[in-house]
Each structure stands twice: as structure tokens, then as C-alpha cells.
Amino acid sequence: MLSDRKIRELISSGKLIIDPLKKDTIQQNGVDLRIGQEVGFQKGRGVLDLVDPNVERFFAIKRMGKEGILIEPKSSFLLHTEEYISLPPNIGALCELRSTLARFGFIAPPTVVDAGFEGQLTIEVFWAGTNPVRIYPGIRFLHVVFFEISGEVMRPYSGSYQGQRGIRLPKSLRSEIKNA
């Protein structure tokens, strides 16, 4: 796991990019990233088929204003980071919610960011509370720790989420089915 000193060195050298980089972003052993302007929700009824080439028809993306957006109890949604990041081919990352948000009742699965990834991060979050909650763009919500990979990876990340901005919906998994 990289220290704040090592993170600052990587940023100063241009090997690690975090844009915008605000004064409270870098923490002792990672960075705190902020909620971006969009929220993604599942919509409609019916079966969400993982191999459906039109999975986007099951999602709605809403833009948040300064007034934030209301999240209903017991609901799952997608957030993206305000910051655009770019990792070098020898640095990976692991994302978790900030502990303050977890204490409120938000849950998010740990998310790995592959070496070589660049873009805004899209994170699935679950609001476990029994009351509606209002969230706002610009709130620090995600803690990201970086780790050095022993040697550079042979194939830095270049998948379909590379360069993403805003909410990037899940891709169809059709290509993973034999004879699809």
C-alpha cells in the first residue's frame, strides 16, 4: 500500500493523475474521491438478462444539481467520481466507501482498479437505511488505496471502461457465452 508521500511523488512526476486534485484529496494511505454529477438507477420491471445486448434499457441516469438527489430506502444505485484518474502500468488500486458513509448505512462492494486504467470510476452503492437519504455532488465518498505491482503488468487495462466519464453502465456479457 502506498503512503501519502509516495502518492504525492507519483502525482508530481506525472505517473499518477488525479484531476481535479483538491487539498483534502490525499490522505495518509490513499485518496478520497468525490461524488460526481450523475446517478444511475435500475428502472422498469422484467428480467434483467446479463447477455441482453441492450442492458441500458434497464437503467436511467439522472444529473444532480446543487440540491442533490433523494435516494429511496433499500435501493441500489451507481455513482461516479468527480475526479478523473490515470494509473501507470505498475500501480493498481482498491476502492472502499469512506467509513463515515458506511456508518450512515451505505454499502459498496470492494472495487479493484486495474493497472493502466484511466477515467472516472463508476461505483455501485446500496443505501441500507429505512429512511430516504439525500446525497450531493462533491461529497467525498470513496477511499482509494494504491499498491505497487511487482514489475509492470504485461497488458495494462484497455477494456471497455477505459476513458469513461460520468456513469458507465454495465456491458452485456453476451460475448462470454459459448456459441453466442
Secondary-structure blueprint of this entry?
Elements: H1 4-13, E1 17-19, E2 26-27, E3 30-42, E4 59-63, E5 69-71, E6 75-81, E7 84-86, E8 91-97, H2 99-104, E9 106-107, E10 111-113, E11 118-119, E12 122-127, E13 133-135, E14 140-148
Antiparallel strand pairs: 1-7, 2-3, 3-4, 3-6, 3-14, 5-13, 6-12, 7-11, 8-10, 8-14, 9-12
Q: Report the helical percentage.
A: under 10%
**Tally of structural domains:** 1
Radius of gyration: 17 Å
CATH fold naming: Deoxyuridine 5'-Triphosphate Nucleotidohydrolase, Chain A
Walk me through this protein's architecture:
The N and C termini lie far apart (41 Å). 9% of the residues lie in helices and 38% in strands. It is globular and about 50 Å long. Strands 2, 3, 4, 6, 8, 9, 10, 12 and 14 form a nine-stranded antiparallel sheet that branches. The protein has a three-stranded antiparallel sheet with strand order 1-7-11, with no helix packed on it. The chain has a two-stranded antiparallel ribbon with strand order 5-13. The chain has a single domain, classed as Deoxyuridine 5'-Triphosphate Nucleotidohydrolase, Chain A, CATH 2.70.40.10. The protein has two helices and 14 strands, in the order αββββββββαββββββ. The longest helix has 10 residues, at 4-13. It has 180 residues and is mainly beta. The model has no long low-confidence stretch (mean pLDDT 94). The relative contact order is 0.25. The chain has helices at 4-13, 99-104; strands at residues 17-19, 26-27, 30-42, 59-63, 69-71, 75-81, 84-86, 91-97, 106-107, 111-113, 118-119, 122-127, 133-135, 140-148.
